[in-house]
Amino acid sequence: MRRLALAVALSVQLAACGGGDATPSDWIVLALTSSPTNLDPAIGLDESSQRLHQLIFSSLLRIDDSLRNVPDLATRFEMQDPQTYVAEIPPGVRFHDGREMTSEDVKASYDRIVNPPEGVVSLRRSAHADIGSIETPDAYTAVFKMKQPNASMLIHFASPWNCIYRAAKLKEDPRFPEKTILGTGAFKFGEYVKGSHWTGERFDGYFRKDRPYLDGYKAFFVKSNNVVTGIVGGQFDAEFRGRTPKESEQIVEGLKGNANVIEGPWVTNLLLTFNTQRKPFDDVRVRQALTLAIDRWAGSQALSKISVLKYVSGLMRPGYEYALPEAELVKLPGFGKDINKSREEAKKLLQEAGVSNLKIKLVNRAIGEPYTTGAIYAMDQWKRIGVETEHSQIETKLFFDAMKDGNFDVLVEFISDFADDPTAQFDKILTKKMSSQAASGHTDQKVEELFEKQARAVDPAERKKIVNELERYALTQAYSVPILWWQRIITNHKKVQGWEHQANHFTASDLVNVWLDE
Amino acid sequence: MLGYIIRRLFLVIPTLVGVAVAVFFLIRVMPGDVVVVKLRADGAQVTEETIQAERKRLGLDKPLIVQFTDYMIGLTRFDLGKSLWTGQSVFEEIRIRFPVSLQVAIMATLIAVFIAIPLGTLSAVYRDTWIDYSVRVLAVSGLAIPSFWLGMLIILGLLAFFNWLPKIGYVSIFEDPVANLSALIWPALSVGYRYAAVATRMMRSALLEVMREDYIRTARAKGVYQKLVMRRHALRNAMLPVVTVVGLEFAFLIGGLVVTEQVFNLNGIGKLFVDATARGDFTLIQGLVLLIAVNFILVNSVVDLLYAWLDPRIRLS
Fold first, then answer.
1. In 10 A of CB A269, how many CB atoms?
2. What confidence tens digit (pLDDT) does each residue in B224-269 have?
3. Could you tell me if A291 and A187 lie in one domain?
4. How far is CA A512 from the centre of its chain?
5. Which residues of A touch B180 (CB under 8 A)?
6. A511 and A467 in one domain?
7. A478, A280 in Cβ contact below 8 A?
8. CA distance to partner chain A, nearest, from residue B202 (Å)
9. A400/B164 touch (CB, cutoff 8 Å), yes or no
10. Residue A253 falls within a domain, yes or no?
11. Predicted model pTM
12. What are the tens digits of pLDDT across the range B181-226?
């Protein structure tokens, strides 16, 4: 038996030392929890596609660790008037094939988003519909003329999906980005083995001198539940989506003092959407009663220990300058700190609405964290005012069918974006006319008017006022109400240095400033 | 024998056509929209107009009969179409993953055969002794323990005792045998154990059955050594049901290692199947079902040929 144990130990040691993957030491090994859906950033909107595109491509602007717009390619980016934006790019920016990038490339890339040629699907066309024309007065200047003011436009210019392609290649074949990966980013494309991994090598001609520090990266596509063992067992150096508190603890324990934990907020929340096309959810009193019953403050304390659910806020991310301050938030239904008082009010509202023995069909995705966690918490809270819930957890594709067909009483949804943009954050509270993703089914002219007004208000102070008004109104009408906002916990080996936390899982993946402290 | 093989091959064609037709229409009864899941699952704000445009780009707006005709014409040219999720060729998607699943299946089969035949034989020969009891306990445990759970124990064991996990990513055995085997031996062991348990029990019961036959008694009465009786007369006949079980298990492993592949991060057919089903990627599911059908047909044919080799009476009939 001892001989057998010794033989197993020796063979494991031999396997650990010999052979293996020839990843050089100054290459980082990453885990991504899914494969990219498309090589073309105009089509691959998912998280994995985006993370990989950032390593290859550049944009005019980018988002910094405070979610503010900062220059990426552009050396100057100016709003001359609410309908004119001027971008200046420096000379000498090179594509990975050695050709210089010019304003023609910027124009061709944006034209492809706004007016896609035959055969090209531009998934983000509607967000850029206000761009009227793009002029290129010289080789390094692009002027964007808008059809009408758009308060979110600056955010769109920093969108990680607005990558710059080579105009000449697009002219030859408008679909070339689906087949060929050619950008100006910090890493050149190496290899893509579907379902397995993606590699990239340092681009020596990168426009930011002395960057990147790494010689390359290898990103493996793995199931989320293999990330913890993978990091502890040395299969990967890092994973940048985020782990639950429990998983983070396991990594810290497993790495025995060699882990680095970075925590912060996340522009993502968990929402409850009420089906106003069904009785009794067409009655605002019933919706208010259901949101009043949820103790978000206690939930924040308890759930944040086991789940990514943590922050109490309205429809804007906590900490964002447009978010309602706590003093105002607590006055809105469901956000007060005296839960007993709120629940009494909830019971009274249900009684006034003539609703007794309410049983809700709560439709949710079959994804444990944080969807199951959040739903169970809501069910528990509703039980305290005598409301019973049937929790229907279904596959994502069936979830979208239920959402489309209105086959639910209450839906567990989320809002997630790469930046704080009220236009995007309000998407789920809108009427069907305004947004194809609004599942509540209500009609509300005031919501439409306020939404449109904030979308056109380019003055930040004015916009904030309208955003706050819409938020207060929407949370009182309770078509869609957040349960809690997410916390982002990144736990990796401490040898991974230079990575800065951002409150979203789409950006900050370009690895430009990351190095390995071996 | 050649005529037999040719006949079998001709029978493959109508079987595959039947599978292709059935799977094409049955899959489309499944609820869910691959385009909506692809574009909206990560929270992207995509308009209905864009979803329709993507559906058109993928050819999903065409009438079902047109899609079916395109699919069947494609099959005649060995073109399985493109994945609705990645836009890549289904053949290519499968080609990348197939070697991983095939190698794990072969390694698990070898492990199972090398364990099952000696243990099953020992168990039958030393029936109702401590050897028999030990083998039976081992076999019942193998049947009771799910492969993926054993896989998880293996991973945790490697981490706890050696603070080590095999390198992730598939490297061909011809390129780097040590890296290849150090990564694939663990899933092969976790699957092979259950596989061995099934085959051991089959080997034991088949051998016990054969050893009661008249020709064995006759051989013993003639004074033939026990070892020779076993090797020449009993084992060969007892192998028939074992070969069936081994063949079926092998065919199942290609595409059946759904959870085990996920536990060990293997980029194999099982994982691809689960992903394709979860996303509603019709074209990929069709290709995978055809692959599994071809695989079962081929393995069954090989089993039939082995029957004929093991028992000449079958060949003659």
1. 27
2. 888 888 888 899 889 989 999 999 999 989 878 888 998 999 999 9
3. no
4. 20
5. 19
6. no
7. no
8. 28
9. no
10. no
11. 0.88
12. 999 999 999 999 999 999 999 999 999 999 999 999 999 899 988 8
